[in-house]
Amino acid sequence: MHAPTHTPLMFAFYCHHFVLPLPPEHRFPMDKYRRLYERVRGLEQTGRVRLREPQPATYEDLLRVHCPDYVARMLEGRASEAELRRIGFPWSAAMVERSRRSSGGTIGALSAALEGEGVAVNLAGGTHHAARDRGGGYCVFNDSVVAARHVQARGLADRLLVVDLDVHQGDGTAALCADDPSIHTFSIHAARNYPAVKPPSDLDVALPDGTDDAAYLDALDHHLPRVIAASRPDAVIYLAGADPFEGDRLGFLRLSKAGLLERDRRVLDTCRRHGLPLSISMAGGYAPEVEDIVDIHFATVGAALEHWGSATAARPSRRACDDPASAPAWAETAPTPSIAS
Ligand SMILES: [Zn+2]
After folding, report:
1. Does 70 score more than 70 pLDDT?
2. β-strand pairing of 203-207 with 10-13
């Protein structure tokens, strides 16, 4: 097993082809994932990005985060109507597979970042409303915590920092990590947005309706270096939600596309200054025009790519690649049949 330290490529994990079947009237913009993939595939053709299909999060991965009964109910299709209403998706085997692949994407990206890549992206993920024994808000399994505990179990990192810049507070992540000092949680969100009940993160910054680029970036500049200093992480899991965008249907903030790109660059620059590898997941985005959501996510991927060259040499990684038994999931090359066909 050779660590991909010197290859001039950034890994991007995709799972849009594991389609989550939705009724035609459903409001979730599922097509954004396919469109984002198409744009990133253009980058792959330039030789700068390597697209990877993630392995599904394993049963063991899920059990490090969720209670056995919840995992069994989801895997076996025994979730109650009320549980599924809270998640917002109808149950199907494909929905569960899709959720496991999405978590697998964050596992893959975080593992790659820690193994020497410096930064890698999941073109899905950010399912931060999933808690120990329940899903919610279009989230089934909590990919950030699944990935954090996966890399901890493999000895790739001891301490993780979740930087959650989705417009909605990461209630599931906060609750899951409340008693876990090894995973520090930081959320900047709209005060009045879903969820109504917000279990405390290690640091929550709740912004008023209509917060614009300047005020948002000031808050980020003020808090992020302090959070890093306080938590002393080995790596960062960054949720780059597209829903703080001014046109978002479900968000109360007013960031422009330029402001969101500047947000991404500041997170990346701050991580680089501190020598921190990071994985980036896309999280939410509900603008009426799907192309606006895709523009924002694609700009995040572009910012990560700009950052990549200087980030790779940022710090020596604790690499498990020399041990064939601990080869990372993304190293699998055999194609996996899509359940969507
Ligand atoms: Zn959101």
Report:
1. yes
2. unpaired
